[in-house]
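[step 3/7] fold_predict: job queued, chain A
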Amino acid sequence: MSSEISHIDFADASSPTRRDFLYVVTATFGLVGGFATLVPMLSQMNPDASTLAAGGPVDLDLSKMEPGQQVVVRWQDHPVFVTRRPPKLLQGLQDPKLIAQLADPQSEEAQQPPYAQNWHRSANPEYGVVVGICTHLGCIPLFYPDANPSEPVQGWLGGYFCPCHGSKYDLAGRVFRGVPAPYNLPVPPYRFVNDTTLRVGENPSGVHFDFGSILQI
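[step 4/7] structure written:
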């Protein structure tokens, strides 16, 4: 289940679809956005073909992640954003100014497993884990973790921005009010195997959560 870091390759180019095209376009913009924010972003890890075909879990080595860094892993052909959130970013998630602008700040809609139905939408506040597909039309949002008065939009508080139609999410994947996207970014099943290994696609012991039960991806 372990895997190496490699290039982005979300779909078979021999059978292009609208979503495949959006993956390519937004992934290209994502590279620009990553440089613009000066926050390192690793490319996805690429599990072996048999693991992907079976839809099985994939492991990520967290020991290589720096605070503020995001890694994109591939699980069931979905890009999964894993972000290491330092205390400063976590404090921002509780800012009343931010919360007042969110459509579902308490994650009441069924877009996550029960262990992620909290203000940080995760099993461990330090690590955010969300499926990086906009709940509007399936584009891939870009990572802009730092607050900025003008970029990518006016009054930016930090999080994810979808360049296709302007949907906005905070660093917990919570969607803003008044944007095209109707729901928070989905949270996949996952668990911590140990202090340095995150396994995407597998629930913690004793917990049953079916990713197919989410409202929208």
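[step 5/7] annotate
Residues 1-45 have pLDDT under 50 and may be disordered.
The radius of gyration is 16 Å.
exit 0
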